[in-house]
Amino acid sequence: MSTIDSSKGLDFQAVFIVNVDNMPFKYEEDVEREVSLLYIGMTRAKEYLFLSYSGESSFTRYFESSRVITLARPKLNG
Q: Of 25, 39, 70, 78, which residue is 20 to 30 A from 47 by alpha carbon distance?
């Protein structure tokens, strides 16, 4: 486990970025930096990239409208 800042220049077999629905952060003034950090985190994945979110933000709306991202929705029993 590491921060996105500390992962610069490294590659990982699988990358998990959680809570993307809180990005961009409400109190962050530099949204471009957050976009850059998310990009850096996403490009560290060599084979698997997992993004998790449960709400909506400008980032998650983009992912859902993109044809590049495959959404995995859990099946609920009952």
A: 25
Hey, how many other C-beta atoms are within 10 angstroms of the C-beta on 76?
Answer: 5
User: Is 60 within 8 Å of 53 (Cβ atoms)?
Assistant: yes
The per-residue pLDDT for range 6-65, each reduced to its tens digit, is: 888 899 999 998 888 887 676 677 888 888 888 888 899 999 988 888 888 877 777 777
Helices (H) and strands (E) in the chain, counts: 2, 2
pTM assigned to the model: 0.71
CA–chain centroid gap for 39, Å, is 8
Q: What is the DSSP letter of 29?
A: S
Which amino acid, residue 57?
A: S
